[in-house]
Amino acid sequence: MKHLKQLALLLACCVGGNLISALLHGALPSNVLGLTLLLVLLICRAVKLHHVEDTADFLLQNMAFFFLPACLGILDIFADIKGEILAILAVCLLTTLCTAAATALTVHIVLKLQHRENEEAFDRD
């Protein structure tokens, strides 16, 4: 029963994201708005982490399952995109490198800020 309640809460955030996206006339993707809604609820402590943690972990561990429809959809249109496959792969590679670089830069900045915070705390003692 616990997992059903957690799933219902996660689905409610998804539906909320859909509703907000519809109100904004699709200006922002509903999945992003749903996750933002969940984040806001967690930050405001309207939802506690233990209310969604088990089901969210299960979904993350089985994420590959959710990519199957997209992969099968690509197989359906492969004949149409065959001529553009190199361009598509180049874009995938470039965006992967950009994402890795942005992640590395973010981690570097956060570690630098944490190190500075630790030094300031050490100086105060």
From TrEMBL:
Record bears the keyword Acetylation: no
Keywords, alphabetical: Cell membrane, Membrane, Transmembrane, Transmembrane helix
Membrane topology according to the record: Multi-pass membrane protein
Protein localization: Cell membrane
Pfam family, one: LrgA
InterPro entries noted in UniProt: LrgA/CidA
Keyword Membrane among UniProt keywords: yes
Transmembrane parts of this sequence: 59-79, 85-111
Protein name stated in the entry: CidA/LrgA family protein
Lineage: Bacteria, Bacillati, Bacillota, Clostridia, Eubacteriales
